[in-house]
Specification:
This protein has 338 residues and is an alpha/beta fold. The protein has two domains: 191 residues, 3-Layer(aba) Sandwich (Rossmann fold), CATH 3.40.50; 94 residues, Hypothetical Protein Yjia, Chain: A,domain 2. It has ten helices and 14 strands. Strands 1, 2, 3, 4, 5, 6, 7 and 8 form an eight-stranded parallel beta sheet that branches. Strands 9-10-14-11-12-13 form a six-stranded antiparallel beta sheet, with helices on one face. It starts with 8 loop residues before the first strand and ends in an 8-residue tail after the last helix.
Length: 338
């Protein structure tokens, strides 16, 4: 057992492709499934270098963040250190791990089994969320990460079913029943409502990583220097990332950059065709948690107080980050954003 550890923490991997709603589902579990006397922990990995997801839990759990690439690339020392630190610091009653939507889970599971052998965790079911509409999108359905996530799921969950047609839900179940290894559970839900009992399903129905196809980035997955620079008013820090057929750009704004709510939402609406848009943005005295995708733009109040952060993930070409940045700056209060 790792030094300083006590009872092994039941641990679940929550996977799914970009935009499927993993963070929403984890927030629901923390709010509705976590017993009030228990402390849970979340290890979040983001594709981009600007961390956003950790700002979205509003103190609901102990959070450790690994920005700057998928866990398949940050495995090894960074992952081991982050996971051991989180376990020692929080001694959680349960640990949830959220890899980036572009991540391949096989190697993550292998490393978690090492932690299990040391007595630090008890591995439970891997839950994979799938938007049934993704089966009609060749950019998603044909992606190796999507296929790996589905294959290695113990519990496969059709998410956002309130937005799906009956035909799409039927197609999901037909596809899911044909997957190998077979799943312990095939479920449906919406709005992040995962059932607590699904977390207790045992792990291991899916095959280990032995023989799994290697994860190659073909030299395109550059890891930039990060966001150590300090933003100035009107001059945000920008970090770009590319790999796995996708590109990401994140911004950290100065705390004095305050955005006009309606102007900001109009800019985000122009990004709906991207695979994922997430952020926490200051609009006057209020702070908003914002999301945008093909289903629209969503904004809700958040307890986060710090600096505004936004991350956009889209196709590897065709996005003009400089133009997006100028549109965001024009949406600040005191600018002509008519």
């Amino acid at each position: 057992m790792l030094r300083g550890m006590h009872t092994p923490a039941p641990t679940n991997l929550i996977t799914g492709f970009l935009g499927v709603g993993k963070t929403t589902a984890i927030r629901h579990l923390l709010a509705e499934a976590r017993p009030s006397a228990e402390r849970w922990a979340v290890l979040v990995n983001e594709f981009g270098d600007v961390g956003v997801d950790a700002t979205r839990f509003d103190g609901e759990a102990a959070i450790e963040e690994l920005p700057g690439g998928c866990l398949c690339c940050t495995l090894g020392a960074p992952f081991r250190i982050a996971l051991a630190r989180l376990l020692r610091r929080s001694r959680p009653a349960r640990l949830l791990i959220e890899p980036t939507g572009l991540g391949h889970p096989a190697r993550i599971l292998d490393l978690l089994r090492e932690f299990e052998e040391q007595g630090a965790i008890t591995l439970r079911a891997t839950l994979t969320l799938v938007d049934p509409r993704q089966l009609d999108d060749p950019r998603v359905f044909g992606h190796a990460a999507f296929q790996d996530q589905a294959q290695l799921a113990d519990v496969l969950v059709a998410h956002k079913t309130d937005l799906c047609s009956d035909a799409q839900r039927t197609a999901f179940h037909t596809w899911a029943q044909e997957l190998y290894p077979p799943k312990r559970r095939i479920e449906e839900t919406a709005h992040g409502h995962l059932q607590p009992g699904w977390l207790e399903e045992p792990a291991g129905r899916a095959a280990p990583a032995t023989g799994a196809p290697p994860h190659h980035h073909a030299g395109e997955h550059a890891h930039p220097s990060g966001t150590d620079a300090t933003p100035a008013p009107g001059r945000p820090v920008r970090a770009e990332q590319a790999g796995g057929g996708a590109a990401a750009c994140g911004w950290v704004f100065h705390p004095d950059d305050v955005f006009d709510r309606q102007a900001l939402l109009r800019v985000l609406d122009t990004l709906r065709d991207c695979q994922r848009v997430k952020g926490v943005m200051r609009t006057g005295r209020d702070w908003l948690r914002v999301d945008a995708d093909g289903d629209g733009v969503r904004a809700e109040a958040t307890a986060w107080r710090g600096e505004s952060r936004l991350e956009v993930i889209g196709p590897a070409d065709g996005i003009r980050w400089a133009a997006t940045e100028q549109a965001l700056l024009a949406a600040r209060r005191g600018t002509d954003n008519r």
